[in-house]
Amino acid sequence: RAPLRRRRRGGEGRRLRPLTELTPKPLIAVGGKPLVEIMIERLRQSGVFDITIAVHHKSELIRERLGDGARLGVRIDYALEPKPLGTMGALTLLRDKLGAPFFVVNADILTKCDFRAMWEFHRQQENAAMTVGVSIHQVDIPYGEFTLHDGRVTRVEEKPRKEFPVNAGIYLLDPSAIELIPEGEYFDATDMIRALVDRGRVVAAHLIREYWLDVGRLHDLEKANRDVAEGLLD
Question: What is the distance between the alpha carbons of residues 191 and 195, in angstroms, rounded to a whole number?
């Protein structure tokens, strides 16, 4: 019997309430422009002109705002999820359309990621089924950190700064990876990565050195507006 998995109600922007009670998270404005439009502009500047947006929560508002993409210089169509399917689960709605490697990008991030460089990196990886965009997250420890062994202190470091590679919400996939996604089930990016690694498939990691911010909480949104005002995304 398969273990129970806690389902996330993705896409509803609960951590950004009350802003998302009337507005879907991708349409939350940063510097006067919706997050999703900022991302689309970045993709267009990198040579990506065909975009499919997976929609579920308040989908009509997203369609009304973005339309067919002509205003933004791209071609947009939509994949309507009958229920939340997760970052990768929605790809099952596009099986017949994806015949070449493609980007999957979260709509709630701000980044100056060099998508062309990530594409070239993916092409150079031998037999890569997936390339994951990785950002470096720094954490300042406000205490002295001990290294312990057999009940003894072997090392101490005062208030260290730690760096961790984290998922940046930007992916490049080979179409063959879609075969691992169960039809009609919630399937997130971590599910995809685990499924590929468990089968011995290559999952490459591309380090994003450019600006990156996950706009998931209210304080992140405040930082995003400050960063845009300071020109960090120019």
Answer: 6
What is the distance, to the nearest Å, from the Cα of residue 95 to the centroid of all Cα atoms in its chain? 20
Q: Indicate the burial class of 223 (C-beta count within 10 angstroms; 0-12, 13-18, 19 or more).
A: middle
CA distance 100 to 53: 17
Element (H, E) at 146: strand 144-149
Backbone phi, psi, residue 160, to 5°: -75, 160
**Segment-wise mean pLDDT, segments of 10 residues, the chain, 234 residues:** 36 52 81 92 94 86 93 94 91 89 93 95 94 94 92 93 94 94 93 96 96 86 90 84
Task: Name residues whose C-beta falls within 8 Å of residue 107's C-beta, 6 or more positions apart in sequence.
Answer: 25, 26, 35, 36, 39, 53
* pTM of the complete model: 0.86
Do residues 145 and 129 touch, judged by C-beta distance below 8 A? no
